[in-house]
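Narrative summary of target 7.
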Amino acid sequence: VPLAAVFDWARPQQLPVIVFPGCGHFFHGRLTQLQQVIAGVWH
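Modeled conformation, tokenized:
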């Protein structure tokens, strides 16, 4: 899915979009960063 399409979909719903540049499908090597972002959003 193109990133612009994600922004177009999220904007009207006022949903945040968090981008991890260069990250692969399974967040290999970035799981700690993903965990921190999710924990920050939920608290």
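Residues 7 and 13 are 10 Å apart (CA to CA).
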